[in-house]
């Protein structure tokens, strides 16, 4: 699908995409960024890796936890996200706030201390973005609400049987990472990479059983998250068997709400 002319947003769109593995969240994000140039993508995973690489105060804290075999807690991830928004000029504290641990780190609006204030931080009118990778649970969403009100949550739905069928037709050229699909992006010669002619393989984790487990896990873990945003009135569900089916519907809804 080729993205048509760009559109200008008249209202700030703070977007989260929720969807099962294989549903095409990455594809939709790329298409939304091309369609609506005012949108920015903020990936919690990229922020974590960047802060670790730059050895910021938050990055050093996260790295120590990871090296000790621990998960990075929600409070640290929220502080990483708020620091990025502060750096962009999109998030401003309404009250005197917390710490600036190091001159190498941007100021943050600490998620752990924010609850003592009655008013939320101030969101800049121009702050339009897609937040990727966070929240993944209802508990994380509630914490995020205190710092950053999300106003459009998209539940991307493709039937699990369609996702599994699509995955079983996926072949990769392992050395380069090039991906093919025998239905909609087949190699020129069956079983061979277009560039090198080397054989294509299927990933070990692309087995049907593995994907059924992944889809079940997503369904279980996302139920409370979806219900949370549904209660808030910010959830919108879109269904399609492919990204090309979903994108026009998604574009139209964003234009209706924000353009």
From TrEMBL:
<dbReference type="InterPro" id="IPR027417">
    <property type="entry name" value="P-loop_NTPase"/>
</dbReference>
<feature type="domain" description="Adenylate kinase active site lid">
    <location>
        <begin position="170"/>
        <end position="205"/>
    </location>
</feature>
<feature type="region of interest" description="Disordered">
    <location>
        <begin position="92"/>
        <end position="120"/>
    </location>
</feature>
<dbReference type="InterPro" id="IPR007862">
    <property type="entry name" value="Adenylate_kinase_lid-dom"/>
</dbReference>
<feature type="region of interest" description="NMPbind">
    <location>
        <begin position="43"/>
        <end position="72"/>
    </location>
</feature>
<dbReference type="GO" id="GO:0006172">
    <property type="term" value="P:ADP biosynthetic process"/>
</dbReference>
<dbReference type="GO" id="GO:0046033">
    <property type="term" value="P:AMP metabolic process"/>
</dbReference>
<dbReference type="InterPro" id="IPR033690">
    <property type="entry name" value="Adenylat_kinase_CS"/>
</dbReference>
<keyword id="KW-0808">Transferase</keyword>
<keyword id="KW-0418">Kinase</keyword>
<dbReference type="Pfam" id="PF00406">
    <property type="entry name" value="ADK"/>
</dbReference>
<feature type="binding site">
    <location>
        <begin position="133"/>
        <end position="136"/>
    </location>
    <ligand>
        <name>AMP</name>
    </ligand>
</feature>
<feature type="binding site">
    <location>
        <position position="44"/>
    </location>
    <ligand>
        <name>AMP</name>
    </ligand>
</feature>
<dbReference type="GO" id="GO:0046041">
    <property type="term" value="P:ITP metabolic process"/>
</dbReference>
<dbReference type="InterPro" id="IPR000850">
    <property type="entry name" value="Adenylat/UMP-CMP_kin"/>
</dbReference>
<dbReference type="InterPro" id="IPR028586">
    <property type="entry name" value="AK3/Ak4_mitochondrial"/>
</dbReference>
<feature type="binding site">
    <location>
        <position position="170"/>
    </location>
    <ligand>
        <name>GTP</name>
    </ligand>
</feature>
<dbReference type="GO" id="GO:0005524">
    <property type="term" value="F:ATP binding"/>
</dbReference>
<feature type="binding site">
    <location>
        <begin position="179"/>
        <end position="180"/>
    </location>
    <ligand>
        <name>GTP</name>
    </ligand>
</feature>
<dbReference type="GO" id="GO:0046039">
    <property type="term" value="P:GTP metabolic process"/>
</dbReference>
<feature type="compositionally biased region" description="Low complexity">
    <location>
        <begin position="93"/>
        <end position="115"/>
    </location>
</feature>
<feature type="binding site">
    <location>
        <begin position="70"/>
        <end position="72"/>
    </location>
    <ligand>
        <name>AMP</name>
    </ligand>
</feature>
<dbReference type="GO" id="GO:0005759">
    <property type="term" value="C:mitochondrial matrix"/>
</dbReference>
<feature type="binding site">
    <location>
        <begin position="22"/>
        <end position="27"/>
    </location>
    <ligand>
        <name>GTP</name>
    </ligand>
</feature>
<feature type="binding site">
    <location>
        <position position="140"/>
    </location>
    <ligand>
        <name>AMP</name>
    </ligand>
</feature>
<dbReference type="GO" id="GO:0046899">
    <property type="term" value="F:nucleoside triphosphate adenylate kinase activity"/>
</dbReference>
<keyword id="KW-0342">GTP-binding</keyword>
<dbReference type="Pfam" id="PF05191">
    <property type="entry name" value="ADK_lid"/>
</dbReference>
<dbReference type="GO" id="GO:0004017">
    <property type="term" value="F:AMP kinase activity"/>
</dbReference>
<feature type="binding site">
    <location>
        <position position="49"/>
    </location>
    <ligand>
        <name>AMP</name>
    </ligand>
</feature>
<protein>
    <recommendedName>
        <fullName>GTP:AMP phosphotransferase, mitochondrial</fullName>
        <ecNumber>2.7.4.10</ecNumber>
    </recommendedName>
</protein>
<comment type="similarity">
    <text>Belongs to the adenylate kinase family. AK3 subfamily.</text>
</comment>
<keyword id="KW-0547">Nucleotide-binding</keyword>
<comment type="function">
    <text>Involved in maintaining the homeostasis of cellular nucleotides by catalyzing the interconversion of nucleoside phosphates. Has GTP:AMP phosphotransferase and ITP:AMP phosphotransferase activities.</text>
</comment>
<comment type="subunit">
    <text>Monomer.</text>
</comment>
<dbReference type="GO" id="GO:0005525">
    <property type="term" value="F:GTP binding"/>
</dbReference>
<feature type="binding site">
    <location>
        <position position="203"/>
    </location>
    <ligand>
        <name>AMP</name>
    </ligand>
</feature>
<feature type="region of interest" description="LID">
    <location>
        <begin position="169"/>
        <end position="206"/>
    </location>
</feature>
<feature type="binding site">
    <location>
        <position position="243"/>
    </location>
    <ligand>
        <name>GTP</name>
    </ligand>
</feature>
<feature type="binding site">
    <location>
        <position position="214"/>
    </location>
    <ligand>
        <name>AMP</name>
    </ligand>
</feature>
<keyword id="KW-0496">Mitochondrion</keyword>
């Amino acid at each position: 699908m080729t993205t048509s002319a760009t559109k200008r947003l008249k209202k700030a769109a703070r977007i989260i995409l929720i969807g099962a593995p294989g549903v095409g969240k990455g594809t939709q994000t790329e298409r939304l960024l091309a369609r609506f140039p005012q949108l920015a993508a903020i990936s919690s995973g990229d922020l974590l890796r960047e802060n670790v690489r730059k050895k910021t105060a938050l990055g050093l804290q996260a790295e120590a936890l990871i090296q000790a075999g621990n998960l990075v807690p929600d409070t640290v991830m929220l502080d990483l996200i708020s620091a990025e928004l502060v750096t962009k000029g999109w998030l401003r504290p309404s009250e005197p706030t917390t710490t600036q641990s190091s001159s190498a780190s941007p100021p943050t609006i600490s998620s752990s201390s924010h609850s003592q204030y009655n008013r939320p931080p101030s969101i800049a009118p121009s702050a339009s973005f897609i937040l990727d990778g966070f929240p993944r649970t209802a508990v994380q969403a509630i914490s995020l609400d205190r710092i950053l009100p999300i106003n459009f949550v998209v539940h991307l739905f493709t039937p699990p049987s369609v996702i599994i069928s699509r995955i079983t037709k996926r072949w990769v050229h392992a050395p380069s990472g090039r991906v093919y699909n025998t239905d909609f992006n087949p190699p020129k010669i069956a079983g061979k990479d277009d560039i090198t002619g080397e054989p294509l393989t299927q990933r070990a984790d692309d087995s049907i059983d593995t994907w059924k487990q992944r889809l079940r896990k997503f369904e279980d873990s996302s139920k409370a998250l979806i219900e949370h945003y549904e209660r808030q009135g910010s959830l919108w569900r879109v269904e399609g068997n492919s990204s090309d089916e979903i994108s026009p519907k998604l574009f139209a809804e964003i234009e209706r709400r924000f353009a």
